[in-house]
TrEMBL record:
Keyword annotations of the record: FAD, Flavoprotein, Oxidoreductase
Acyl-CoA dehydrogenase/oxidase C-terminal domain: residues covered: 230-378
PANTHER family referenced in this protein's UniProt entry, alphabetically: ACYL-COA DEHYDROGENASE (PTHR43884), ISOVALERYL-COA DEHYDROGENASE, MITOCHONDRIAL-RELATED (PTHR43884:SF12)
Listed InterPro entries: Acyl-CoA_DH_CS, Acyl-CoA_Oxase/DH_mid-dom, Acyl-CoA_Oxase/DH_mid-dom_sf, AcylCo_DH-like_C, AcylCo_DH/oxidase_C, AcylCoA_DH/ox_N, AcylCoA_DH/ox_N_sf, AcylCoA_DH/oxidase_NM_dom_sf
Keyword hit for Nucleus: no
Keyword set includes Flavoprotein: yes
Occurrences of domain Acyl-CoA oxidase/dehydrogenase middle (ranges): 125-217
Family the entry assigns: Belongs to the acyl-CoA dehydrogenase family.
Pfam families in the record: Acyl-CoA_dh_1, Acyl-CoA_dh_M, Acyl-CoA_dh_N
Name by which UniProt lists this protein: Acyl-CoA dehydrogenase family protein
Domain Acyl-CoA dehydrogenase/oxidase N-terminal positions: 9-119
Cofactor(s) in the UniProt record: FAD
């Protein structure tokens, strides 16, 4: 049964119905095969673009869908329940558009944002480096101003859509002034001097390419600086607050898919003459899974509604990311247990869900970092 949702408008209800249709008819059936083949579904993102999904939370004047964040996140959840590579990819693209949408000049937004949101282009977010992950302020990729352009040199790591993105939102160092020496750039994916390394061999999300990026005196026009020099870390952290809500929604979608699979299997599998869902030990396990999914959904919706209301939501974003991704790990692991031996095989998607869940606790700020941020907000 579809998730029962409280949506703010009839337009949102229609949008979620379309999302379910695309998820069911275009994504779910091919997810397992493409993940095994490690095939990036670029055509799926083109379909989402044609359907107006690549700019949902942004202004109509720039080609966006002008949807509340709480609606956009529920779209993410539905897509992720069918195929995590697509859900996470949409979340990363949306976060990659955030700096220009919120910190760019009117001229920059008018020039570049419509194409970024229009459906043909796909973005990547280039913040992490081999030695600057959780400690983002220590990044060393350097951008040196030379007349009307910057020469960028350095390496980025763990870049979703690396090598296939049409543009990257890049954080690079423009001075040695610590956290205040980082700036934000919008970099065309075809820029000379920019290249991607081989894709990482990952335990999950194998359909989504994750690569290092290398900048060898890559020339980026000065007009592609977003905000002022030195604003980069502030911009990056603001984007991550919204992006963490996106990952929380993706995690809930994955957990919901695992719960649905476990319930369906438990209804059909019989032992000792009756369906295993009738045994109390399994009933309680499924009940805990359902409670975890619903609680996680409530946490990301709380953060989204605060964001939509113009209220501070950074701590709620960290809570949502922590709660939802831990829930996804627990629920997917329990789904494998419900299916027993069958859950450990590729005949069912439970093992894939479990593998995909793990990275959700790691990227866009590890859950240890989220605990640190939440505790900081209590002081």
């Amino acid at each position: 049964m579809p998730v029962q949702r409280l949506l703010p408008t009839s337009e949102a209800t229609d949008l979620l119905a379309l999302t379910r249709e695309i998820a069911r008819d275009e994504l779910a059936g091919r997810a397992a095969g493409d993940e095994v083949a490690e095939k990036f579904p670029r055509d799926a993102f083109r379909l989402l673009g044609e359907s107006g999904f690549l700019g949902l939370p942004y202004a109509e004047e720039h080609g966006g869908g002008a949807q509340p964040y709480e609606v956009y996140l529920q779209v993410l959840e539905e897509l992720s329940s069918a195929w995590m590579t697509v859900g996470v990819g949409l979340s990363v693209h949306t976060m990659s558009c955030f700096p220009l949408a919120h910190f760019g000049t009117d001229e920059q937004r008018s020039r570049w944002l419509p194409d970024m949101l229009g459906g043909d282009l796909l973005g990547g977010y280039a913040l992490s480096e081999p030695h600057a992950g959780s400690d983002a302020a220590s990044l060393s990729t350097r951008a040196v101003r030379q007349d009307d352009e910057y020469g960028i040199t350095g390496a980025k790591a763990w870049i979703t859509h690396g090598g296939v993105a049409d543009f990257y939102t890049l954080m690079a160092r423009t001075s040695d002034d610590g956290p205040r020496g980082i700036s934000c750039f919008l970099v065309d994916g075809s820029t000379a001097g920019l290249s991607a390394g081989p894709p990482e061999h990952k335990m999950g999300l194998t359909g989504s390419p994750t690569t290092p990026l290398y900048f060898e005196d890559a020339r980026v026009p000065a007009e592609r600086l977003v905000g002022e020099e030195g604003d980069g870390l502030k911009i990056a952290l603001a984007a991550l607050d919204s992006g963490r809500l996106g990952i929380a929604a993706c995690a809930v979608g994955l957990a919901q898919a695992a719960l649905d699979l476990a319930v369906d299997y438990a209804k059909q599998r019989t032992q000792f003459g009756r369906p295993i869902i009738e045994f109390q030990g399994l009933e309680f396990l499924l009940a805990d899974m359902a409670a975890a999914v619903q609680s996680a959904r409530a946490s990301y919706l709380d953060g989204a509604r605060r964001r939509d209301a113009g209220m501070p939501f950074g701590q709620q974003a960290s809570v949502a990311k922590l709660v939802a991704t831990d829930a996804a790990m627990k629920v997917t692991t329990d789904a494998v247990q419900v299916l027993g031996g069958a859950g450990y095989t590729r005949d069912f998607p439970a093992e894939r869900y479990m593998r995909e869940a793990k990275v959700l606790q790691i990227f866009e700020g590890t859950n240890q970092i989220q605990r640190m941020l939440i505790a900081r907000g209590l002081k």
